[in-house]
Structure formats: C-alpha cells, structure tokens
Amino acid sequence: MGTYKYIGLIATQQLETPILLSSGSLANGYKLKKVLAHGQAVSNGIAESWYPGVEVVANLSDILEDENIELVVVAGKSHNQLELIRQATEAGKFVRVI
After folding, report:
1. CB-CB neighbours of 39 under 10 Å
2. How far apart are CA 35 and CA 11, in angstroms?
C-alpha cells in the first residue's frame, strides 16, 4: 500500500480491550499512528502492547498538531468529550466517536 491515511486514537474511558480498525478501514488505507490514553483510560504499557509500532503520546496536542493525522477517533464517553471533538475539528481533523 502506498499512501496511508493516518488516525489518532483518544481513549477517554477505561478500555478492557483494544479498539481495532475494521478490515474496511485497512482496505481503504487507514493506519493508526498515535494513541492518547486521556485521563489514564489505559496505561502506557498496556497501550504499547495493544498497539505495537504505534506511538503512545501524553498530550492531545501530539495528535492535533500532527499534520499527517486526518482522522481522530474518540473512544468512550467522558465529561469533556464535546471539548475534545471541538478541538479536533478546529484542528482540521475528521472526527469519529465510538
């Protein structure tokens, strides 16, 4: 596959299993680039084991300021979910909430 469409994942609540890309997403060239465990939703060690080769970041800006990331996936509910969505759209990202 030539060019990827990169995704930034923001986990906003405790996850028990990793969020996986669908086969359709993979076929369409999407690739997970960065993961943020917002509010310690997932420890860095677990995130690194769930997403090998993906950068685990400590700050939202690491995802929002990455010009290669086109899509931000917000996984889980949180009290500041709307603020995360607003910041991502203002940064020019497409957003999907799951």
Report:
1. 15
2. 8
Q: Collapse the DSSP code of 34 into the 3-class scheme (helix H, G, I; strand E, B; otherwise coil) and give the result.
A: strand
Q: What is the pLDDT of residues 22-43, one digit of tens each?
A: 766 777 888 899 998 765 556 6
Residue pair 70/95 in contact (Cβ under 8 Å)? The answer is no
Closest CA to 34 of 9, 59, 12: 9
**Which residues sit opposite 52 in a β-bridge?**
none
For 45, the token pair is 């060690």
Phi–psi pair at 36, nearest 5 degrees? -120, 120
Would you state the torsion angle of the CA atoms of residues 46, 16, 69, 4, taken in this order, to the nearest 10 degrees? 90
pLDDT band at 1 (very low <50, low <70, confident <90, very high): very low
